Amino acid sequence: MYTEKVMEHFRNPRNMGEIPDADGVGTVGNPVCGDLMTIYIKVKDNKIADIKFKTFGCGAAIATSSMITELAKGKTLEEALKITRGNVAESLGGLPPIKMHCSNLAADGLHAAIEDYLKKREAEK
Amino acid sequence: MRRVYMDHTAGMPVDECVLEAMMPYFTQNYGNPSSIHSFGNEARRAIDEARSKVAELIGAEKKEEIVFTSGGTEGNNLAIKGVAYRNKDKGNHIITSSIEHMSVINTCKHLSKQGFKVTYLPVDKYGIVDIEALKKEITDNTILVSVMYANGEIGTIEPVREIGEIAHSKGAFFHVDAVAAAGQIPIDSQDENIDLLSLSSNDMYGPRGVGALYRKAGTRILPIIHGGGQERGLRSGTENLPGIVGMGNAAEIAKAEMKTEAERLSKLRDEFIKGILDSIPESYLNGHPTMRLPNNVNVRFSYIEGESLILSLDMEGVACSSGSACTSKTLEPSHALLAIGLAHEEAHGSLLFTLGKQNTEEDIKYVLGLLPNIVKRLRAISPLTPKELVN
């Protein structure tokens, strides 16, 4: 059902965990629907210096969370905001059609974390 | 790697003896039972013999009360649509339960678009059908009550005898979907007030693509498949000869082995359930603790999701199912789990093991050795898990 790449990320998720003093936190999804993820970012010089995730959900939800952390790490905020759901699925060698909508939330989670960071910075000014 | 199959509700292996009994009917005895010649006679005799064996498994009075079908889904369709269409003049009300198989629920939904009124009875937290609700809802307009013998997903066994009695008190026919129960626990159709009963061959180690409907003499139904008038006009189409022979053989073996196998599986089941609940915090049993199919273990774990549990077990060679939305085609969690009162997020965390003949105590120990760590790992990934459970 899943590609080797999805299973590999499910087996060995990258950057799993929390960042207690994160600069931005984004939570998307809903446990009622079966998928919930939180993305934590640390920003330095307008770049994503560190990123971690925690996810409740199916194999695709965990693998996409892991993949987004790899795609976003080291990128500028502008570059990171351009990462789409499609990019995540593509990097994993594709997802089953039924999973494309419900479990492919990681890009939304990353964007929510960046927006949280930008909002906080705006508030500090 | 060790491979452990615990998904028998999804599909069963065909018993070796059954397969052996079927083989001559592909290449040697291939006659059509409707033919007059000796080839036809041989085929007819084989089908009659299979009919008797199926009749004996479920306590039918006569073998002629067995109609062979293509499986459980067709049996349920034939029973429900068959009664509805044939008894329209008597009434238009059908009563069923909220935990039936989709082949019952969706057939009823189809009929409700054609002028029939359907009542879905609630169940208690264990999945037992609400008898008081049945007594309240049944009227002289009710033509059919359809309740399953046991639920294949949560394992709960229903009080069918009592339900049948209530159905008959208002002159309604009583249909029982016995796909999950047949071959595992004793069924006595006559004694249990059953007019129609659906069976599937593969759910008792027979081949796929064959099943049967018991129709007690005098139960008025119309066919749903029309053609050459086979199966006393109730199921047209040339008989699936090897399949029917296989199902008859499977029924015979199931009847002979039932007592010892049910005892063996019940013991493994209880050991498995206890092992899970004892070793994993915030794990719970779904379904009834004692009124339960011998092969059924359905549990749930807080804070994690079933599909990731299945994938994790699959990586260790263990095959099972879940009621999670993520494993269904509709992206809805199991209706049976919701009917027993679970919240969506609780249903997502469910795991279903259905044991079978080849499962041993070593298999149970193997899975019990893996499961706590798998649950722990997924809980560490989940943002919902309370801190004290992670460490």
Based on secondary structure, the structural category of chain A is alpha+beta
Structural class of chain B: alpha/beta
Tally of extended strands of chain A?
Answer: 3
Distance between the termini of chain A: 49 Å
Q: Main sheet of chain A?
A: 3 strands, antiparallel
Largest interface chains and counts: A-B, 26 and 23 residues
CATH topology of the largest domain in chain B: Aspartate Aminotransferase, domain 2
Strand order of the largest sheet of chain B: 2-8-7-6-5-3-4
Beta strand count of chain B:
12
Total of DSSP H or I helical runs spanning 4+ residues of chain B: 13
Q: Sheet bearing the most strands of chain B, described?
A: 7 strands, mixed
Would you identify the CATH architecture of chain A?
A: Alpha-Beta Complex
Percentage beta strand of chain A = 15-25%
Number of helical runs of chain A?
6
- Oligomeric state of this protein: heterodimer
Tell me the layout of helices and strands:
The complex is a heterodimer of chains A (125) and B (391).
Chain A: H1 4-11, E1 24-30, E2 35-44, E3 47-56, H2 59-72, H3 77-81, H4 85-91, H5 97-102, H6 106-124
Antiparallel strand pairs in A: 1-2, 2-3
Chain B: E1 4-5, H1 16-22, H2 24-27, H3 38-57, E2 66-69, H4 72-86, E3 93-97, H5 102-112, E4 117-121, H6 131-137, E5 142-146, H7 160-169, E6 173-177, E7 196-200, E8 211-215, H8 241-279, E9 283-285, E10 296-301, H9 306-314, E11 318-319, H10 335-339, H11 344-348, E12 350-354, H12 361-381, H13 387-390
Parallel strand pairs in B: 1-11, 3-4, 3-5, 5-6, 6-7
Antiparallel strand pairs in B: 2-8, 7-8, 9-10, 10-12
Helix pairs in contact in B: 1-8, 3-8, 4-5, 8-12, 9-12
